[in-house]
């Protein structure tokens, strides 16, 4: 599919998977709106590229989300793809020990913010000419099988699956497709705890050093989902490090 000139909004674009996806999209001819809380990291990704637009954004704040998409439309006229990527790991505690404040903070970023961004993206995609577009939600293999002591993260990622299906259904009449990528152990700062120190906690109480895979491969998977023609949609893709404890976990 022709990508040159298409407009993508990437949240959490300053680091990790979001950064890798944004950089690959820029290399592939997309015009990319880089959203995230830390402007200095977004500027590093942009590096003066003509197709990059830095819009520092706290996606948990309604007014800032509105401004993000208004800026995209004012600058480039439309939004073809939203990569709903911003997220946090949440507290590493049992459900019995969860602090309500930590729960609220995790839900705000992982679930509410993703919904806020999808809400405005859909409004833009419904009204633009030609109308339509694609939303890709960054889920997690935790949307299928949780880790121990990850209740807030696991619940929000299960919620992302419901969001994905709802967008795909509600967007159908307007040419808006939605898919979800569930990634396991790509090599980013968030995965450091799985490969360093005592390793990742397993359901049987052991800790092991789990394998990871290059973040560039996760970015290529997202780009594939973004680039399929409007007549097709990748509803769900699971990509994990080979050999990681996911199938048969526990």
Automatic annotation (TrEMBL):
Give a yes or no for keyword Translocase in this entry. Answer: no
**Alphabetical keyword list:** Oxidoreductase
Q: Which InterPro entries match?
A: NAD(P)-bd_dom_sf (IPR036291), SDR_fam (IPR002347)
Give the matching Pfam families.
adh_short (PF00106)
Annotated GO molecular function terms are: oxidoreductase activity
User: What family does the entry list?
Assistant: Belongs to the short-chain dehydrogenases/reductases (SDR) family.
Q: Protein name, please?
A: NADP-dependent 3-hydroxy acid dehydrogenase YdfG
- Lineage start: Bacteria, Bacillati, Actinomycetota, Actinomycetes, Micrococcales
